[in-house]
Amino acid sequence: DGADRPPPAGRGVHAPGRAAIPARQLRTDRWWVPRTATLVGLLAFIGYSTWRAFAGSHYYAAPYVSPFYSPCLAENCERMRGGADWGLFGSWWRLSPALIVLIFPLGFRLTCYYYRKAYYRAFWASPPACAVAEPHAGYTGETRFPLILQNVHRYFFYVAIPVASVLTYDVALGFRDPRGQWGHMGLGSLVLLVNVALIWAYTLSCHSCRHLVGGRLRHFSRHPVRYRLWSWVSRLNARHMLLAWLSLASVGIADLYVYLLAAGAFSDPRFF
Ligand code: FES
Questions:
Q1: Does the interface predicted TM-score (ipTM) exceed 0.90?
Q2: pLDDT per residue over 227-237, tens digit each?
Q3: How many angstroms does the Cα of residue 96 sit away from the middle of ligand 1?
Q4: Residue 148 CB contacts under 8 Å (≥ 6 apart), including other chains
Q5: Ligand 1, atom 2: nearest CA belongs to which residue?
Q6: Which residue, judged by its Cα, is nearest atom 1 of ligand 1?
Q7: At CA 110, angle to CA 174 and CA 135, rounded to 5?
Q8: What is the distance between the alpha carbons of residues 135 and 129, in angstroms, rounded to a whole number?
Q9: Cα–ligand 1 centroid distance for 202 (angstroms)
Q10: Distance between CA atoms of residues 75 and 166, nearest Å
Q11: Where are the transmembrane segments (predicted)?
């Protein structure tokens, strides 16, 4: 574990000009618990989502489609048979259709301000926690390649909006029965509904969203609508970490639910 190794003498936190603190860190609480929980949570999601993304099967159990596979952009997407979405990738695309789509939510989360903090700490011990010295000899932050690319986050945010909109459309389709008649509601309809609500809450709580609606203004008093939007987004933004985890869990659960239905593990309980 990198956090257990001291930084090299004369480098990092031992560089000349830094306060000479002999102890490796002065925290007396269990600072490693959040870091370990983050590590386990992220690894579990990475393992599960990689398996499901490459599987290319069991992602459509009419009328539900897994959020990992939506929007269906390839002709080999199972839901394309129902005429939904766009066949932008023709028959030449033989891999799992999820691989085309997942780049966008993956990029959005990978460059997210919260996840950056989470995985810098969990995987790189940079730093392992607040007020715990990192073991690295140098620190350039996000000023150089490749981490300077984290600045593209706002563009992933722009793409996250249409992706969340398509998932919302999927939720609407989940209220039709497998024959296409409206008025159906199964447990799957609710699972997808809760998931999309959490995805929207996470997306709208994004720091880039907050800047987009309320940034670069001199006077809020002259922009009451933007001020109101900024107030709402700010309230969500204060819960960004919580929403990041809840939406990550819900998207995995929604996919797992569709997978189990498609694999015939059980039938969708239907309310009407
Ligand atoms: Fe987390 Fe934008 S800062 S999604």
A1: yes
A2: 999 999 999 99
A3: 27
A4: 142
A5: 206
A6: 112
A7: 145
A8: 12
A9: 8
A10: 17
A11: 32-51, 95-115, 155-175, 181-202, 242-266
